[in-house]
Write a structure and sequence with these properties.
The complex is a heterodimer. Chain A is an alpha+beta fold. Chain A contains 14 helices and 18 strands. Helices cover about 35% and strands about 20% of the residues of chain A. In chain A, helix 12 runs antiparallel to helix 13. In chain A, about 55% of the residues are buried. Chain A folds into 2 domains: about 220 residues, Uridine Diphospho-n-acetylenolpyruvylglucosamine Reductase, domain 3, CATH 3.30.465.10; about 190 residues, FAD-linked oxidases, C-terminal domain (Vanillyl-alcohol Oxidase, Chain A, domain 3, 3-Layer(aba) Sandwich). Chain A has a 7-stranded antiparallel sheet with strand order 15-12-14-13-17-18-16, sandwiched between helices. Chain A has a 5-stranded antiparallel sheet with strand order 5-6-10-8-9. In chain A, strands 1-2-4-3 form a 4-stranded mixed sheet, covered by helices on one side. Chain B has 4 domains: about 90 residues, Uridine Diphospho-n-acetylenolpyruvylglucosamine Reductase, domain 2, CATH 3.30.43; about 120 residues, Uridine Diphospho-n-acetylenolpyruvylglucosamine Reductase, domain 3 (2-Layer Sandwich); about 110 residues, Alpha-Beta Plaits; about 90 residues, Alpha-Beta Plaits. In chain B, the strands form 4 sheets. Chain B has a 7-stranded antiparallel sheet, with helices on both faces. In chain B, strands 5-6-10-8-9 form a 5-stranded antiparallel sheet. In chain B, a hairpin with a 5-residue loop joins strand 8 and strand 9. In chain B, helix 1 packs antiparallel against helix 3 and helix 8 runs antiparallel to helix 13. The chains are: A alpha+beta, B alpha+beta. Chains A and B meet through strand 9, helix 7, strand 11, helix 10 and helix 14 of A and strand 9, helix 7, helix 8, helix 10 and helix 15 of B. The complex binds flavin-adenine dinucleotide (2 copies). The site of one flavin-adenine dinucleotide has 37 residues of chain B, from strand 3, helix 5, strand 10 and helix 12. Chain B: Its cofactor is FAD.
Chain lengths: ~475, ~475
């Protein structure tokens, strides 16, 4: 206790502004959890706004051997920022001082706490675009995106966060500050640390600044939707579009349960009778957009889809809003939501959809599916009742089978949400003993005291 | 020197015919495409499969024998020069394209596949593998991956890394690791795929690679733009990009390079211009023609002497081939060609070109410059003679100054050729002590006995920075 006392005093010494250090119990409680899971109450939450503060906090943590949990907006769906043991939460949401667009180099530089959507907004003023668009883009931070290597609907055509990170400034678990990558498009000076830190879920470094690549903003976008009477046919249609060499900017899948949930959450005249809804967006210039829309429509129709092309922006916005509301809408239906993001090769999408349907029935759990169908990244969600122990048990088995199916089909446990604490027990099945061993060695080399975000990625039985 | 016992074991593993230690063989593999570096290996081994590689690595790890994996030895950073002896590992038996998956748009290949062979094989199926280093006729995929090589199409399509979805590698302790998969997205744990790409053979031996393919663009169009003023050419590059056009290719050649290339290729290149840009765009016809018009306009605004479109694909190909032969052509001129690949943010291209010319004048050297201008990746190339010690010293000073300038402009010391042995003394200039330490920690974690390509990337001593 005395130790905690002096730790907190030291935190106040580093961060002079008292409003940026939280220690009273009541205010600490919300920081126990993220969107998916709950941990323990932290000792303190500190909001650094400079690299120097972040570095000093880590030095201090090493001295006291107290864990530090980096945190953005806590929208993680894998328990990423959750304090699994007592420690300090390092929250970057107040660290938003820098957001610069360099239109000559097509680059953006941002502080870790900048909200993702703000970057794209700033870029669009220069006719540029920051493509990664996780559905949480209006609330999540760029550092959280980098740490999770977040994806989004536009990922199909434009790739994920990692494809746009040119360089980082980071603070190592031992408090050292360094820069990786830079403003150049190409860089092979040593190991690709930028690539290593991206997706490392706050376990290897605190991200203190991000340098991002921007691209010219497409002139036009058009949206089309198609309803299907059969979920598997919708899956086939997705595969067919891609195998015909078409590359829409978005290609999303929503099943009937999700459509109904959204309609209940916010009535907007969605086709609640369809078993599945596909949403596609095409971008580019005039004639090309029209051509691609026509080609996609034709393929959808061949698989029995009933196609509507959005006539104007209001109509497309309504459809995309529906897609964005899926997650909150289904959350409102249950007391506990288990959200997965197993990802499979494009050719296996129909097979995966079929298997998910079977798994839901087999274990008798409410299983709904939506997601970035175009890149094989589906989000099966289990809508559960916290009080129903039997159901929770069945759900656990169902999740295991989902993972197993994904791996059998050549896929991965996680396409974009990360391993965090929720999936860590399963990681070994995918990357093997050797894979885990190498990752563990990297972690140990960088963070000998296991200070930074312990209990994530590596499973609890790890004796790190 | 390998003991006779070790030699016996190695022969047992790979068979007599795949173990070579004659003086001729050792001499052949004592150097690569990098000038002024030479050192004899103890043996040259061509394993037939990954199991043999596992056994070789286990043995070498126990005995602390250096392993130098080698593709075609075309790297330009002394990445395959066996400076600490040991074993050169060749992939001549592991040169198969294992699968082209047209459903998921992927190719699975062994490391010894020649880059151009892969490109041709996928193009036969109407697919496209964009990374095209100028050395692609001879370079291997294993080498491309370990150097994270770029190419003429990199501006629009990115570099090798952007196409590596997964790989299989043998680690120094003989364990096999598999990373990634046929997936557009994968965030399960640390991204070891990206860590291996560009690791220059220092972390393990790559035994299989899963590559991403893309659909073949519909059309392609090529133009050559001539300039009186080098600066104007460089400014055009920045202006094209800031006009939000990303062409496939945007290459720069200065007059000395042009003259040499024309002398070599004889295709009627304009040797009266002081600089040229070779520009290509691909995609749907309407977009290509619209972009090319806009680019032409930007170039004319910058006082281009002329803007010529290639009339036929043959003509376009001749231009591309001419550009690709720049280094080979320059290499014929003088006994030693030292080429760099400092890279700067794209808006700094003209500043960098100017600085290179000033530095060449200051040290009285013959430096020709060409390169992937659109990426900010230039190749200042010094034609010199390694036997002339006095001149070599000036060359070294000049390049140190070029590195320094690149870093000062927010750039880096190598954009695509890698660090190898050659640039290892300069690594710290760019990364700082912390950066080098962090990388060393990773190397140590993977390869505690330092058997994988030792001496590469990390130098014993860092070069002192001369402040100018
Ligand atoms: C409604 C909803 C929709 C979503 N849609 C998507 C989607 O489409 N695609 C997708 O990929 N994800 C999605 N997510 C998941 C989540 O939004 C992303 O993972 C996001 O990147 C998390 O950002 P955050 O700021 O909330 O970070 P947090 O959740 O607070 O933290 C995420 C991880 O980042 C680490 N971290 C945070 N800041 C730093 C820092 N400065 N330095 C180092 N590490 C740090 C944390 O330790 C943690 O491991 C969604 C979530 C919700 C709730
Ligand atoms: C004329 C010419 C033009 C060039 N043009 C370009 C260009 O446009 N862009 C560009 O980026 N580069 C270029 N280069 C440089 C060079 O060709 C590339 O770096 C190429 O990728 C090297 O391929 P390689 O097969 O020759 O590999 P090598 O030179 O044999 O090896 C390169 C590195 O890879 C390692 N390695 C090879 N195979 C394996 C394996 N299986 N496992 C682990 N490590 C391995 C080696 O140890 C070494 O560190 C050029 C070179 C020349 C001579």
């Amino acid at each position: 206790m005395a130790n905690t006392q002096s730790l907190i005093e030291q935190l106040h010494r580093i961060v002079k502004d008292a409003s940026r250090v939280i220690v009273d119990h009541e205010s600490l409680v919300p920081f126990k959890s993220d969107y998916s899971s709950e941990g323990t109450t932290p000792l303190a939450v500190v909001f650094p706004i400079t690299t120097k503060e972040a570095s000093e906090i880590l030095l201090l943590a090493n001295q006291y051997k107290t864990p530090v949990f980096p945190r953005g907006r806590g929208t993680s769906l894998s328990g990423g920022p959750v304090p699994v043991v007592e420690g300090i939460i390092m929250d970057s949401t107040k660290w938003t001082s820098t957001l610069e667009i360099d239109p000559n180099n097509l680059i953006a530089v941002a502080s870790p706490g900048v909200i993702t959507a703000d970057i794209d907004k700033a870029a669009s003023k220069h006719g540029l675009m920051y493509p990664p668009d996780p559905s949480s883009l209006d609330i999540a931070t760029i550092a959280g995106n980098v740490a999770e290597n977040a994806g989004g609907p536009r990922g199909l055509k434009y790739g994920v966060t990692g494809d746009y990170v040119l360089g980082l400034e980071i603070v190592t678990p031992e408090g050292k500050v360094m820069k990786t990558g830079g403003k150049t498009m190409k860089n092979v000076t040593g190991y690709d640390l930028t690539g290593l830190i991206t997706g490392s879920e706050g376990t290897l470094a605190v991200v203190s600044q991000v340098t991002l690549k921007l691209i010219p903003r497409p002139k036009e976008t058009r949206t089309l939707s198609a309803t299907f009477e059969d979920m598997t046919l919708a899956g086939n249609a997705v595969s067919a579009v891609l195998q015909n060499g078409l590359l829409p900017s978005k290609l999303e899948f929503i099943d009937q349960a999700c459509i109904k949930a959204v309609e209940k959450f916010e009535p907007m005249d969605l086709p609640v009778f369809a078993e599945a809804l596909l949403l596609a967006e095409v971008d580019g210039t005039g004639e090309n957009v029209q051509k691609e829309i026509d080609e996609i429509a034709l393929i959808f129709e061949n698989f029995g889809g009933c196609v509507t092309v959005a006539k104007n922006e209001t109509e497309s916005n309504r459809l995309w809003k529906a897609r964005k509301l899926v997650s909150p809408a289904i959350k409102a239906l249950c007391s506990w939501k288990l959200s997965e993001d197993a990802t499979v090769p494009v050719s296996q999408i129909p097979a995966m959809i079929k298997r998910l349907k079977t798994i839901g029935e087999k274990y008798n759990v409410p299983l709904v599916v939506f997601g970035h169908a175009g890149d094989g990244n589906l989000h099966p969600n289990l809508l559960l009742d916290k009080e129903d122990a039997g159901q929770l048990e069945r759900a656990e088995l169902a999740v295991k089978e989902i993972f197993q199916s994904a791996l059998e089909l050549g896929g991965t446990l996680s396409g974009e949400h990360g391993i965090g604490m929720l999936k860590s027990p399963f990681l070994k099945n995918e990357v093997g003993e050797t894979g885990i061993d190498m990752m563990r060695r990297i972690k140990k080399a960088w963070d000998p005291n296991n200070i930074l975000n312990p209990g994530k990625i590596f499973s609890a039985d790890d004796n790190l | 020197m390998l003991t006779s016992e070790v030699k016996k074991l190695l022969v047992q593993i790979v068979g007599q015919e795949n173990y070579k230690d004659s003086n001729e063989m050792r001499l052949v593999y004592s150097y690569d495409a990098t000038p002024t570096f030479q050192s004899l290996p103890d043996a040259v081994i061509s394993p037939r499969n990954k199991e043999e590689i596992q056994k070789i690595l286990q043995l070498c790890n126990e005995q602390q024998i250096p392993i130098v994996p080698r593709g075609s030895g075309t790297n330009l950073c002394a990445g395959t020069c066996p400076t600490q002896g040991g074993i050169v590992l060749l992939f001549t038996h592991m040169d198969k394209i294992l699968e082209i998956d047209e459903e998921n748009l992927t190719a699975t290949v062994q490391p010894g596949v020649i880059t151009l062979d892969l490109i041709n094989a996928v193009e036969e199926r109407g697919l496209f593998y964009p990374p095209d280093p100028s050395s692609m006729k001879i370079s291997t995929i294993g080498g491309n991956i370990n150097e994270n090589s770029g190419g003429l199409r990199g501006l629009k399509y990115g570099v090798t890394r952007d196409y590596v979805l997964g790989l299989e590698a043998v680690l120094p302790n003989g364990n096999i690791i598999r990373t990634g998969g046929k997936l557009a997205k994968d965030v399960a744990g640390y991204d070891l795929t990206r860590l291996f790409v560009g690791s220059e053979g220092t972390l393990g031996v790559v035994t299989e690679v899963l590559l991403k393919l893309v659909p073949m663009p519909e059309t392609k169009s090529t133009m050559l733009v001539l300039y009186e003023d080098i600066d104007a050419a460089a400014r055009s590059v920045s202006k094209i990009i800031s006009n939000r056009i990303i062409p496939t290719t945007l290459e720069f050649l200065d007059k000395p390079t042009l003259e040499v290339v024309e002398d070599f290729a004889k295709i009627g290149l304009p040797t009266h211009a002081n600089a040229v840009l070779l520009i290509e765009q691909d995609g749907p016809p309407e977009i290509v023609s619209r972009d090319m018009e806009k680019i032409a306009m930007v170039c004319r605004e910058e006082q281009a002497l002329s803007v010529e479109m290639a009339a036929t694909e043959e003509e376009a190909d001749a231009l591309r081939t001419a550009r690709r032969s720049a280094l080979s052509a320059l290499a014929r001129m003088k006994p030693t060609t030292i080429l760099e690949d400092a890279t700067v943010p794209r808006s700094k291209i003209s500043e960098m070109v100017r600085a290179i010319n000033e530095i060449a004048a200051k040290y009285d050297l013959n430096i020709c410059t060409f390169g992937h201008a659109g990426d900010g990746n230039l190749h200042p190339t010094c034609l010199t003679d390694a036997r002339n010690e006095e001149e070599m010293e000036r060359v070294e000073h000049a390049f140190a100054e070029i590195f320094d300038k690149a870093i000062a402009l927010g750039g880096t010391i190598t954009g695509e050729h890698g660090v190898g042995e050659m640039k290892s003394p300069y690594l710290e200039w760019k990364l700082g002590k912390e950066g080098v330490e962090a990388m060393k920690a990773i190397k140590q974690a993977f390869d505690p006995n330092n058997i994988m390509n030792p001496g590469k990337m990390f130098a014993k001593d860092s070069r002192k920075r001369v402040l100018v």
